[in-house]
Write a structure and sequence with these properties.
The protein is α/β, with parallel strands linked by helices and about 260 residues long. It has one domain: 2-enoyl-CoA Hydratase, Chain A, domain 1, CATH 3.90.226. It has twelve helices and nine strands. It has a six-stranded mixed sheet, sandwiched between helices. Helix 3 packs antiparallel against helix 11. The protein is globular. The mean pLDDT is about 95. Pfam families: ECH_1. Keywords: Hydrolase. Its EC number is 3.8.1.7. It comes from Roseibium album. GO terms for molecular function: 4-chlorobenzoyl-CoA dehalogenase activity.
Length: about 260
């Protein structure tokens, strides 16, 4: 029997199902167990009477992307690092596709920093509210990774190709107010008001016909559009695997981990 701690918690609240990333001591950094727990939570929610799904993070961060320390623990062998990376990025991309095809509205309460591939969880949400202290940042060029999680598959559709390239070339930190101006969030508020912002949206959604919301989401994320996103995510994963085991990338991870202590 697997008795490891669950890295995702769920809570029914005021007409929505909240899903919490629960690895706060590591800023909810992504590891396979967290992503598998998240897949399970999304699948269970999709199988029940559909209500809005809300994703948030415990602690100070929403999620800081792939756990660099975990990558380094698998870097003693090239094949081991490749296997781990394929496992992790594949699971992240599956979660993103599960969110895009979810049978009810998907919301995000962005309580803190969002970096690396975890940005895909925000990009896959229909609407998100960001804390004033939250920001987005890629960090790929600081380490040598290929972008994953939708930084090239989804972000350009929201902000345009030129802005998506600028953010990633310059490793630009996109603070909450700029994210609002770019259309990457629908609301910026103090952390203490995130719950209230989400509650307001859930109430407004609930006053409409669920069948209409379902049809709207299904038509926007139709089969052809999902297939296109899946193909682009597969390209991201292939690039990630091409770069991850190179000596300069391992050196970049070691340097980055040293900065973070």
């Amino acid at each position: 029997m697997n008795d490891r701690p669950r890295l995702v918690e769920t809570e029914e609240r005021a007409g929505a199902l909240w899903v919490w990333l629960n690895r706060p001591e590591r800023h909810n950094a992504l590891v396979p167990d967290l992503l598998f727990d998240l897949q399970d939570a999304i699948a269970e929610a999709a199988s029940c009477a559909p209500v809005p799904l809300v994703i948030s993070g415990r602690g100070a961060s929403f999620s800081t992307g792939g756990d660099i320390a975990a990558f380094l623990r698998h870097s003693g062998s090239k094949q081991e690092l490749l296997d781990y990376s394929e496992f992790l990025v594949g699971a992240l991309h599956s979660v993103i596709l599960d969110l895009l095809s979810f049978p009810a509205p998907v919301l995000a309460a962005v309580n803190g920093p969002v970096t690396g591939g975890s940005t895909g969880l925000l990009l896959a949400a229909d609407m998100n509210a960001m804390s004033e202290t939250a920001f987005l940042q890629p960090y790929y060029s600081e380490v040598g990774f290929g972008p994953d999680g939708g930084w090239t598959a989804l972000l350009p559709n929201l902000v345009g190709a030129s802005k998506a390239l600028e953010i990633q070339y310059l490793n630009k930190r996109v603070f909450a107010n700029e994210a609002l101006a770019l259309g990457l969030t629908s609301c910026v508020c103090p952390s203490s008001q995130l719950d209230q912002a989400i509650k307001g949206w859930v109430g407004a959604i609930g006053r409409g016909y669920l069948q209409t919301h379902q049809a709207t989401r299904r038509h926007i994320w139709n089969v052809s559009r999902l297939d296109e996103v899946r193909d682009r995510l597969d390209q991201e994963k292939a690039s990630f695997l091409d770069l991850i085991a190179r000596p300069e990338t391992i050196a970049g991870m070691e340097k980055f981990a040293g900065k973070r202590g």
